[in-house]
Amino acid sequence: MTTKDLSIDSTITLNNGVEIPIFGLGTFRMKKAEEIQQAILSALKAGYRHIDTAKIYENEKDVGKAIRDSRIPRQDIFVTTKLWNADHGYQKALKACEKSLGRLGLSYVDLYLIHWPVEGIRKETWKALGTLLVDGKCRAIGVSNFMIRHLEELLEGSSVIPAVNQVEFHPYLFQEDLLQFCRERNIQLETYCPLTRGQRLDDPKLRSLADRYSKTPAQILIRWALQHDLVVIPKSSHPGRIRENADVFDFKISEEDMKTLDSFHEHENLRVSWDPTSVR
Ligand SMILES: NC(=O)c1ccc[n+]([C@@H]2O[C@H](COP(=O)([O-])OP(=O)(O)OC[C@H]3O[C@@H](n4cnc5c(N)ncnc54)[C@H](OP(=O)(O)O)[C@@H]3O)[C@@H](O)[C@H]2O)c1
């Protein structure tokens, strides 16, 4: 598959054979039941088949309800949730997953992630995720906010390679070394905050590039991530923006403009979300 052929239905095969849709809907800060229902149903109508939630978003119950209400067969929607920091440790992690499944009203999730590399205990937690995988509670397991040294530590102590690492990633935080590291080890990088939470959408150099493609800055940022072979999960609660963000499969950013976007990188520690670089 080349990036030219990408469609909203495109998937990437993870290191354990599970297919993950390259494009999905983020749900951070969606709290109200009606908002969640509207966003998820709009997204599914627009062709999204991948929903990202987490225990800490306190919306698993409503996310699960919206997915069930859509009447789309369960196996056609890829659902990710994440283990929160207070739930680290072998036994706690097993229980946390059960509880997330209970809130979601699902018998399994497609991807279960360690949300944050909590120091000292993350290896124990990783063992629990291995058990959950074997037990069929999740189809794939992975991590989030893991930097290279966290991944190296995990890989040294376990034969189970994370299928996914979900991190902040956009042209203004172009973590090329991490991308390369993950590629070489067959860990799929997934980007959160692909739209910089709106903080760089007014950047004049991004705007003028977007104008040349008759696309919006948000669409350029999403397409850039897809062309770097990342899985992308922009969040919006608004049906119009949900459709706009999915309208990225009818054009291709040229190699030259990809390089220009890569050069927007500002600073390794400039993040719009939390910063895991100092976690030991
Ligand atoms: N693993 C982690 O630690 C972690 C951390 C952060 C996020 N995440 C996941 O990644 C997802 C995406 O990240 P995010 O929500 O933080 O940031 P984001 O997707 O970069 O940005 C979301 C913000 O952009 C606005 N927006 C969406 N589409 C837009 C458009 N076309 N034009 C202008 N503004 C637009 C949204 O507002 P409206 O909703 O009002 O449209 C919202 O305020 C999250 O929802 C969550 O699922 C994971």
Keywords:
280 residues, 10 strands, 15% strand, globular, 10 helices, single chain, binds NADP nicotinamide-adenine-dinucleotide phosphate, alpha/beta, two-stranded antiparallel ribbon
What does this structure look like?
The protein has helices at residues 33-45, 60-69, 90-104, 122-134, 148-157, 176-184, 204-212, 217-227, 239-246, 255-262; strands at 11-13, 19-21, 25-26, 50-52, 78-83, 109-114, 138-144, 164-168, 188-192, 231-232. With 280 residues, the chain is an alpha/beta fold. The strands form 2 sheets. Strands 3-4-5-6-7-8-9-10 form an 8-stranded parallel β-sheet. Strands 1-2 form a two-stranded antiparallel ribbon. Helix 5 (148-157) links the parallel strand 7 (138-144) and strand 8 (164-168). Helix 2 (60-69) crosses helix 3 (90-104) and helix 3 (90-104) crosses helix 4. It is globular. The structure holds NADP nicotinamide-adenine-dinucleotide phosphate (NAP).
Number of helices, counting only DSSP H or I runs of 4 residues or more: 10
**Secondary-structure element pattern, one letter each:** EEEHEHEHEHEHEHEHHEHH
Helix content: 25-40%
Q: Which structural category fits the helices and strands? A: alpha/beta
**Ions, cofactors, ligands: which are bound?**
NADP nicotinamide-adenine-dinucleotide phosphate
Beta-strand content estimate: 15-25%
- Please tell me what the overall shape is: globular
Biggest sheet architecture: 8 strands, parallel
Determine Rg (CA atoms, Å): 18 Å
Give the averaged pLDDT, no decimals.
Answer: 96
Strand order of the largest sheet: 3-4-5-6-7-8-9-10
Multimeric status of the protein: single chain
The N- and C-terminal alpha carbons lie at a distance of: 38 Å
Topology, number of strands: 10
Name the poorly predicted regions. none
